[in-house]
Prior knowledge:
Blueprint: H1 10-22, H2 45-64, H3 82-95, H4 107-110
Amino acid sequence: MTATTADDSPSRLFADQQASVAQRTGSGCEAPTAGIANVPAHDKRAIVAVAHGMIVSIYHMLSTDTPYQDLGPDLFSNRISHETRRRRLLTQLDALGYEVTLTPRTEAASGAF
């Protein structure tokens, strides 16, 4: 029988699993974990938050007997409509003291980016 160290704890093993899932390109777990690589070792709140999300997902998959369905890497970036985002950004610019007038692009100019 071997002694269990702090490195073998279930939370450490779960964090390692979460990190490997987050590194997969194109997974839905990639978006919320994009900034975790630069988190100092003493600040584990981001890792705990993502681990919590994974636990909630696992719970719902097991309780409803449904397979995992990846929601995609753009899940968080496309949550709000373009109109809502436009209004929010205009409000923020107005609060900063800018007066902004928006004009829609033409079809030919929209492919410039």
